[in-house]
Amino acid sequence: MPQTSRYSDERVEALLSELASVLEKHKTPVDLSLMVLGNMVTNLINSSIAPAQRRALARSFAEALQSSVHEDKAH
């Protein structure tokens, strides 16, 4: 069952586009992009989520990430 979001697709797409633009502007390679985005997620969790909830949220995030990755051969 698809999850619904309290945020509009337009808002999500606008933020995604801006973040991608910053990475492209700096000609950031994929490995560095992933490192920076991972650090950003870690910082958000550690600074905005109650300590007792951090591991559960990180686990949920990791599961959502894994389920959204496709195993097709295109890249």
What does this structure look like?
With 75 residues, the protein is an all-alpha fold. The protein has one domain (10-68). The protein is built from three helices and no strands. The longest helix is centred in the middle third of the chain and has 19 residues, at 30-48.
Keywords:
mainly alpha, globular, UPF0352, YejL_sf, UPF0352 protein EBL_c13280, 75 residues
List the helices and strands and how they pair.
Layout lengths: L8 H17 L4 H19 L2 H18 L7
Spans where pLDDT lies below 50 across 5 or more residues = none
Counted by DSSP, the helix tally is 3
Main sheet overview: none
Report the portion of residues in β strands.
under 5%
> How many angstroms does the end-to-end distance come to?
27 Å
Family: Belongs to the UPF0352 family.
Pfam families: DUF1414
Organism: Shimwellia blattae (strain ATCC 29907 / DSM 4481 / JCM 1650 / NBRC 105725 / CDC 9005-74)
InterPro entries: UPF0352, YejL_sf
Outline:
The chain has one domain (10-68). It is 72% helix and 0% strand.
